[in-house]
Amino acid sequence: MTEIVVPPLGESVSSATVARWLKKAGEAVAADEPLVELETDKVTVEVNAPSAGVIESIAADEGAEVGPGAVLGTIGAANGAAKPAPKAAAAPAPAAPPKVEPPHAPAGPVARPADLPPGPAASKLLAENNLTQAQIGAASGKDGRVTKGDVLAFLAKPAAAPAAAPPAAPKQARSLEGGEERVKMTRLRQTIARRLKEAQNTAAMLTTFNEVDMSAAMALRAEYKDVFEKKHGVKLGFMSFFVKACVAALKEFPAVNAEIDGDEIIYKNFVHMGIAVGGPSGLVVPVLKNADGLGFAQIEKSIGDFGRRARDGALKLDELTGGSFTITNGGIYGSLMSTPILNPPQSGILGMHKIQERPMVVGGKIEARPMMYIALSYDHRIVDGKEAVSFLVRVKESIEDPRRLMLDL
Length: 409
Description:
Layout: E1 2-5, E2 16-21, E3 28-29, E4 34-39, E5 44-48, E6 53-58, E7 65-66, E8 71-76, H1 120-128, H2 133-136, H3 148-156, H4 187-202, E9 205-213, H5 215-232, H6 239-252, E10 259-261, E11 264-266, E12 273-275, E13 277-279, E14 282-284, E15 287-288, H7 296-311, E16 325-329, E17 348-352, E18 356-362, E19 365-379, H8 385-400, H9 403-406
Parallel strand pairs: 12-16, 16-17
Antiparallel strand pairs: 1-8, 2-4, 2-7, 3-6, 4-5, 6-8, 9-19, 10-11, 12-15, 13-14, 17-19, 18-19
């Protein structure tokens, strides 16, 4: 018999929910065949068969919460060999005779006989504080009398904490009306909700806006897209332009790439760029590690791979942690303008939007130009308004004149 166990779930992930069994008890399975899907706070993890055989038992049903190393079920031999009989339970050992403790004198103050009055000084203190000797408890004086010291010790004790209020009764789910249905939130959706609310409750979040004339970037892309794809095997998109522009701006304004830890600021000498992508269960943010050292082709390949695996639910846990700054592109869904929410503990997130032709004054004449609104949401506790606006202007300048990116200007 082979146990099916929960694999390590990655940094900061302590549990998972059994989302779906792909096999039933009694079904034959091959080695490394997917058996069950686990849903964590970040991604869906497939657990494969550790060996070939037959699903003998399922220990964790769908919806159960499990931790790393927990047994999900067992796989038995495929040939139907008889199972070994369980070992007979060992007879319980005879109980040991009770241990007899010799009597001993009690330690500490002795109980006070009820008919012995407290001393004069103790009586005065009791009267001044509206106390009775019964409230004092055990006494330390001769013959068990309450002393002045006993009363002072009682008065020095902290007041008893008020009784805790009884827990509030769980809120009753409202009854459903016709046409409604109730569906439990996935762990991923619960995590998204919790983290977004955490960002609003914790950070002093502001958003600043600007607009970018995409003419130069679009012209450069149109001129070189075929050659680029032929050489690198990937299409040239606009996301790589914005990643490179943000990397350049983050080097100039490092506070946007930093985070707050208690009463300290952690500055990062690298850029781990989070790229928000939509998956079947919601938005996930895989991280492009060391984006400051990547070229256009490497960025485009990585982003394309993230998008494909996000749709297939195949992103790895370590690819979703460690980001220092995030880019989200609502423009692919048609968004014209939005205020993105920070991805804690990061201090900045750039929002890209739909490219739309608008009338612009160029050289004293009105021309139709492909324009994009861009937004930077930032944590005002660490990033000043001047830094935030200047950061966004640097991104705008780099996109409107892509030669600056090529020349590291």
